Amino acid sequence: FMALQASSPARAAEHEPEAQNLENHPGRHHAEHPNVLGVRVGFLSRLEPEDRQLTYEPGAFFGLSYERTLIHEWLEFEVSAPVAVLFGEQTGLALPIDVHLKKPFHPVGWASPYLAVGPTFDVNLRPERAVYFGASFAAGTYLWPTPRIGVDIEFDYNIVAEDGRAVHELLLATGPVFRF
Questions:
Q1: Percent of the chain with pLDDT over 70
Q2: Is 93 within 8 Å of 84 (Cβ atoms)?
Q3: How far apart are CA 180 and CA 176, in angstroms?
Q4: Contact 152, 138 (CB under 8 A)
């Protein structure tokens, strides 16, 4: 009985660093709260080929995003659905919806950079309605001043097939995110 009592504090001390490492691990909050809801605002630039030249169309957007951790610290799934206003020859609305598989990185607890890839669906509402498909690539980071409230900064490149031509979209987005 005395030997058990003497060894118990020593064994507890052996496991304390493991418990502290789990508590201070940068990806810990992702495991506790695997869902992220975001509000994004940003700028959109479209480059469309037209008669051997590129036509530039600026835009602005506002939207929501939802993310779910699929494999802790390895794979996440995200859907973002903004409403964009394009200021070209014909001002109009578009809905560039991205579906991403994301690879997160957790170098420190307050920052979580990521890379993402997936399909994009452009719902064009000007002047006629049409849906176009393409590929989306993104890089960004979450900044976490608190464990559950943060800021997302993301750069996207989309290439979309519209009426037999490749349209290039560059998006820069930022906004608050909430873990739950």
A1: 83
A2: yes
A3: 13
A4: no
